[in-house]
Amino acid sequence: MTYHEKRSISSLITGILIFVIYFLVVRNMHLNGRFEGAEVLQFWGRTILIMIPVTIAGRIIGMILFEIGNKIGGGEDGPEFSDERDKLIELKSTKISMYIFALGFVLAMAVIALGGSVNWMFITLILAGFLSDIVGELFNYIFYRRGF
Amino acid sequence: MGKCLISNNIRRLRFDHDEMTQQQLAEKTGVTRQTIAAIEKEKYSPTLELAFRIAGVFGTTVEEVFTFTGDKGE
């Protein structure tokens, strides 16, 4: 397995771990409090704002752990730069990821339009963000595996 | 995504040039070793610019290095 394939799998696992842990924390917060009216929007606003730095920090820690594990395991060093193939693969996987998120956004709007609660709209949005991230990494892995 | 429609002689040309390694060819053409490996295995078709760079390293023409196989069997 090449460096890029291993890195994609590592990012995939990190992404799933961060989401599951954060989801459990948010779920507990939600179970402990009763939110009504504007409080619901404040809760989701806080949840999403906190999720951004948590995800970034988790990703950085995941990358550091991967690099350490890769070095200890005797894996090949990662390239120092991105060439044309890397950029094409990144563009393609980002495009797929964006499509998934756009679809999730439309679904979230549909939830509201059909009379669903604000909670379900935000849950759909967050799930779309998570799925787009995971599918993007998965396609990144597939493209590197297939060559392009 | 379809099958790569460009075959190449890079493996043979590397061998003919003092058994040049993939890493050496990658350094001379400004790409990563993994990209050279993908081109050699015909998993990735390089851009025209990279194709010219590879041909330039071997001191030959693009046609000598790459062959379009898309019309075969059509």
Descriptive tags:
heterodimer; A: 148 residues; mainly alpha; 4 helices; B: 74 residues; 434 Repressor (Amino-terminal Domain); two-stranded antiparallel sheet
Low-confidence residue ranges of chain A: none
Radius of gyration of chain A: 18 Å
Adjacency order of strands in the biggest sheet of chain B: 1-2
Order of helices and strands of chain A: HHHH
- Range of strand content of chain A: under 5%
Tally of alpha and pi helices of chain A: 4
Largest interface: A-B, 12 and 16 residues
End-to-end distance of chain B: 18 Å
What does this protein look like?
- Chain A has helices at 3-32, 38-72, 84-113, 118-146.
- Chain A is mainly α.
- Chain A has one domain.
- The longest helix of chain A has 35 residues, at 38-72.
- The model of chain A has no long low-confidence stretch (mean pLDDT 90).
- The model of chain B has no long low-confidence stretch (mean pLDDT 90).
- In chain B, strands 1-2 form a two-stranded antiparallel sheet.
- Chain B contains 5 helices and 2 strands.
- Chain B is mainly alpha-helical.
- Chain B has a single domain (6-68), classed as lambda repressor-like DNA-binding domains (434 Repressor (Amino-terminal Domain), Orthogonal Bundle), CATH 1.10.260.40.
- Chain A binds chain B through residues 2-4, 79, 81, 83-86, 146-148, and chain B through 1, 4, 30-35, 38, 41, 43-47, 50.
